[in-house]
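Issue 218. Parser rejects a valid record. Input:
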Amino acid sequence: MQESGELQLIRKMEKNDRIIRSHYERLRQNYGNQYVAIDNGKVVGHNSTLSGLMAALKAKNTELTTVLVQFIPRKGTDILY
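Output the parser choked on:
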């Protein structure tokens, strides 16, 4: 049975979310205090500002529909929600 386009998008976003959660410490080590873009389980961009990241993704013609963007604080930084 073929999945709908919406279900495929949801599965890709879930995969991106799992990557962030399972590799959080490595992401923190490599990209601390930066916005990180994950697509299809891979880092496709990073920048210290959200606008800089979005500009870089657009310049690379990245399809933004399935990209998950997350701010990764450096170690020792507390984030309040």
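Fixed in the parser; the record now loads. DSSP finds three helices and three strands in the chain.
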